[in-house]
Amino acid sequence: MKVLVIGAGNMGLTYAEGMSKSKLLKKRNIMVLDTSEEKLEKLNKMAHFDAFSELKDCVPQADIIFIAVKPYHAESLFKAINPLVNPGQIIISIMAGVTIDNIKLLAGIPKIVRAMPNLPAKIGKGLTSFVASKDVSKIELLTVESLLDTTGKSIQVSNEGLIDASTGISGSGPAYVFYFMQSMMEAALQMGFSKNDSTVLVSQTFTGAIELFNQSNLSPNSWMDMVASKGGTTRAALDSMQGNNVNELIKDAAFAAFNRAVELGKEH
Ligand SMILES: NC(=O)c1ccc[n+]([C@@H]2O[C@H](COP(=O)([O-])OP(=O)(O)OC[C@H]3O[C@@H](n4cnc5c(N)ncnc54)[C@H](OP(=O)(O)O)[C@@H]3O)[C@@H](O)[C@H]2O)c1
C-alpha cells in the first residue's frame, strides 16, 4: 500500500511521520507532495519519505491520498487531481469545513473520508474523529482507522455534523485547557509564586489529575466529590465556579466553536 500526503505543513508532516511508523506501510511507501520549495528541500533531507512537487508523478501510484492543505486551496487542488485519480483510491481530508459531497464533486471519486484532528497529534497523543462516505468498505475503514491511530486515537462518527461538533470539543479543546492553565498560572503568580514555580504547579496538577482520571472508571463529578469535603478549600473553589456559572460558560464556548465550524463549512 502507498500513501500520498499532499501538503507538508504542520498537520501533513505530523500525519506523515505518524503513518511512517504504521505496520501497514513498508519503508518509503509514504510520498509527500508540497508546492513550496522550502518544504521540498526539508522533505528531501528526510530519508523516510519520497518528496514530490508534481501531482502527475505521485497521485496515480497512491492507494490513499491524504489532503492536508488549507481549505482555501481545496478547489484548485481537487480540480488538478481530478484527471489523475481512479475510483479505487481513497481520499482522506483533514481540511476544516470541506464536505464529503464537495470533495466527491471536485475530485470525481466516491471513496472519501473526512477527518478532524487536534494539535496533540504532534506528539502521538491526538484525537482524530472521522466519517466516511458509504463507498468506503469496512476493510478499508479499518485501514484508515489504523493509519489515523498512528497519531493517537481515532473515533469514527456517523455523520458530518458530528465532525463539526468534534471541532468544538477535541479540535479546539486543547486551547480551552490552555485557557484554564493560564488562569491558574496567573492566580499562582498573584499568590506570590515565581513564574517557574507557577508553571510547574499548574502543569503537574493537570498531568496528575488527567492520569488519575485515565486510570480510573470514575466520572469527573465523582472525582470532584472525592476531593471536595464540606466546608473545605476545594469545595470553596467549586462553589465559586458554580456561583459564577463557569460550567455553562464552558459549554457556551464549545458551542461557539461548533457553530463557527458549521459557518465555515457553509463558506466553503
Ligand atoms: N493545525 C491544526 O491544528 C488543524 C486542526 C484541524 C484541522 N486542520 C486542517 O489541516 C489542514 C492543514 O493545516 P496546517 O496547519 O498543517 O497548514 P499549513 O501548515 O499551512 O500546511 C499546508 C501546506 O500545504 C501546502 N500547499 C498549499 N497548496 C498546495 C497544493 N496545491 N499542493 C501541495 N501543497 C500545497 C502549503 O504550502 P504554502 O505554505 O506554500 O501555501 C503548506 O506547506 C487545514 O486544512 C486545516 O483546516 C488543522
Compact description:
The chain has 268 residues and is α/β, with parallel strands linked by helices.
How does this model look, in words?
This protein is an alpha/beta fold and about 270 residues long. It is built from 11 helices and 8 strands. The chain has helices at about 10-20, 35-45, 75-80, 100-105, 140-150, 160-170, 175-190, 195-215, 220-225, 235-245, 245-265, and strands at about 5, 30-35, 50, 65, 90-95, 110-115, 125-130, 150-155. Helix 3 links the parallel strand 4 (about 65) and strand 5 (about 90-95). Helix 6 (about 160-170) packs across helix 11 (about 245-265). Bound molecules: NADP nicotinamide-adenine-dinucleotide phosphate. NADP nicotinamide-adenine-dinucleotide phosphate binds next to helix 1. NADP nicotinamide-adenine-dinucleotide phosphate binds near residues 70, 77 and 171.
Number of strand elements? 8
Placed side by side, the strands forming the largest sheet appear as 3-2-1-4-5-6-7-8
Question: Structural class given helices, strands, pairing?
Answer: alpha/beta
Number of helical stretches of at least 4 residues: 11
In terms of per-residue confidence, which ranges show pLDDT below 50 for 5 or more consecutive residues?
Answer: none
Give the overall shape: elongated
Which compounds are bound in this model? NADP nicotinamide-adenine-dinucleotide phosphate
